[in-house]
Amino acid sequence: MKLNDAALDKEYYVSAINACEEGMGEFLFTLGCFPGEKITVISQVASSYIVSIKDARYSIDENLAAAILVEDSSLATLAV
Predict the structure, then answer these.
(1) What contacts 33, CB < 8 A, 6 or more positions away?
(2) Is 5 helix (H, G, I), strand (E, B) or coil?
(3) Could you tell me which residues are beta bridge partners of residue 60?
(4) Which of 13, 21, 44, 58 could form a disulfide with 76 if both were Cys (CB 3.0 to 4.6 A apart)?
(5) Does residue 80 lie within any of the structural domains?
(6) Quick check: is 58 in a domain?
(7) In this structure, is residue 79 part of a structural domain?
(8) Has residue 44 been placed in a domain?
(9) What pLDDT score was predicted for residue 79?
(10) CATH number of the domain encompassing residue 62
């Protein structure tokens, strides 16, 4: 599911980055947003999302949120 559809204050794992614009994937990587990383949507105001990644908070727009694919952390089965 896309991060846009995520519930507030619920922890998810990033399952993939589906970047459609050049540089979007690299930008998300610099924020620490990559497959296997935990992410939580703290709040949503209009078309902006406040997310928590690695104990830091960032504001991202709906295009960036749509590029982040997540899965429920309680259902995630990540390979070790």
Answers:
(1) 14, 17, 39, 53, 68
(2) helix
(3) 49
(4) 13
(5) no
(6) yes
(7) no
(8) yes
(9) 47
(10) 2.30.30.90
Task: Report CA torsion sign: 52, 53, 57, 60.
Answer: negative
For 54, residues 6+ apart whose C-beta sits below 8 A from its C-beta are 32, 37, 38
Per 3-state DSSP, what percentage of the chain is helix, strand, and coil (rounded to 5)? 20, 40, 40
Q: How many domains does the chain have?
A: 1
Q: 31: Cβ–Cβ under 8 A, 6 or more apart, which residues? A: 53, 56, 58
For residue 77, pLDDT over 70 is answered with no
Joined together, the tokens standing for residue 48 give 């902006």
Domain range for 7 is 3-72
Mean pLDDT score across all residues of the chain: 91
> CA angle 20-22-47, nearest 5°?
55
Please report, as a single letter, which amino acid is at residue 68: I
What average pLDDT does range 1-17 have in this prediction? 96
The 10 Å Cβ neighbour count of residue 70 is 25
Band of pLDDT at residue 69, cut at 50, 70 and 90: very high
